[in-house]
UniProtKB/TrEMBL annotation:
Native organism: Idiomarina xiamenensis 10-D-4
GO molecular function terms attached to this record: protoheme IX farnesyltransferase activity
Gene assigned in the entry: cyoE
Lineage: Bacteria, Pseudomonadati, Pseudomonadota, Gammaproteobacteria, Alteromonadales
Topology relative to the membrane: Multi-pass membrane protein
Protein localization: Cell membrane
Protein name listed in UniProt: Protoheme IX farnesyltransferase
Gene Ontology biological-process entries: heme O biosynthetic process
Length: 313
């Protein structure tokens, strides 16, 4: 199709296609938010010995989801010129001209403030303010500043995306607990291999858009070394929930398997890469984090069942 190329040359003249609800959904990065919400849900469950109150869970997940979606919409708005230069992001609603910047801003403000109000009214102020800090961390600190300023952008910015398990935890307890920080640390160390694997695959795109991602500023070989080192660090951090007695043997065995596969990808990417290794590692990173949090959940309820059984016998 000729349109995207034509658009690349005339990014300032959007096409003004008709907007649909799908465009608004795209703005919220729904699949990313879905995984963020899974981590928040697990944070909630691990914070309590019994099943979490359904109403509280619904209110907290909706509030956090709306605010994360709002942050993602601001990211689309701020990055619209960069997005128009990269093949992966060219078809987003703003570069395509199906939504205007003013509409996107209004949409982000609407869902962001609705989410904040929900958390304030039905969850607690601590969770509302921490979620707002994550929104600002991603939409303002990462997107407006770090992304354009330093190749450590995603390492520092990763903290905002790593926050949801803590948000889930505080939603239930109104308290910041060291175990919740452990969950944040897992996502924080997972983010560099997750993103840099994709950045290696898309390095030319980022260079073209002049975004100082690590493969652009320091080269592919150095980025692959960093990926391997962060994946090793992640494997160590993932042991902490077991070592501090927060999770049991089901988690330990499962996460060890996941980390062996992830390390296998990182090793292959560094020492024996094929054309699709980087992309496959990125795709696996999403399964890795999702299954890790599912394991934490299964382990939590199995583990507490076993303790309960022990006290009955
Ligand atoms: C600074 C931190 C992060 C950066 C820079 C980053 C970057 C990216 C990028 C560039 C993509 C590709 C999106 C696309 O194809 O349009 C992606 C996909 C994805 N990311 Fe991340 N990510 C980060 C953190 C996270 C976190 C914290 C999560 C969830 C806990 C997450 C979950 C996902 C998922 C599920 C996808 C696949 C989305 C899809 O297929 O539509 N990411 N990420
Ligand atoms: C309130 C709260 C919990 C906020 C969390 C914010 C959030 C949605 C984090 C996800 C991080 C992410 C997808 C970064 C990619 O941005 P990018 O601009 O590098 O990627 P792109 O090029 O695909 O847009």
């Amino acid at each position: 199709m000729a349109q995207p190329l034509a658009l690349e040359k005339t990014q300032t003249k959007p096409l003004h296609k008709r907007a649909s609800w799908r465009d608004y959904l795209t703005l919220t990065k729904p699949r990313v938010v879905a995984l963020l919400l899974l981590t928040a849900l697990v944070g909630m469950c691990l914070a309590s010995d019994t099943w979490v109150n359904g109403w509280l869970m619904l209110a907290a997940l909706t509030g956090i989801g709306l605010m994360a979606g709002s942050a993602a919409a601001v990211n689309h708005l701020v990055d619209r010129h960069i997005d128009a230069k990269m093949a992966r992001t060219l078809r987003r609603p703003l570069p395509q001209g199906s939504l205007s910047p003013a509409r996107v801003m209004a949409f982000a403000a609407l869902i962001g403030s609705a989410g904040f109000a929900m958390l304030m009214a039905w969850v607690n102020a601590l969770t509302a303010w921490l979620t707002l800090a994550s929104l600002v961390g991603y939409a303002v600190v990462y997107t407006m500043y770090l992304k354009r300023a330093t190749p450590q952008n995603i390492v520092i910015g990763g903290l905002a995306g790593a926050a949801p398990p803590l948000l889930g935890w505080t939603a239930v307890t109104d308290n910041i607990h060291a175990h919740a920080i452990l969950l944040v640390m897992i996502i924080f160390t997972w983010t560099p291999p997750h993103f840099w694997a994709l950045a290696v695959h898309r390095a030319k795109d980022y260079a073209k858009a002049d975004v100082p991602m690590l493969p652009v500023t320091h080269g592919i070989a150095f980025t692959k070394t960093c990926i391997l080192l962060y994946t090793l660090l992640l494997a160590i951090v993932c042991l902490l929930p077991y070592l501090v007695g927060m999770s049991g043997v089901v988690y330990l065995l499962g996460v060890t398997l996941l980390n062996c596969v992830f390390l296998g990808y990182a090793w292959k990417l560094k020492f024996a890469p094929q054309r699709k290794t980087a992309f496959n590692m990125f795709a696996f990173s999403i399964w890795h984090l999702m299954l890790l949090f599912v394991l934490l959940l299964i382990d939590h309820y199995l583990f507490s069942d076993w303790s309960a059984l022990g006290s009955v016998l």
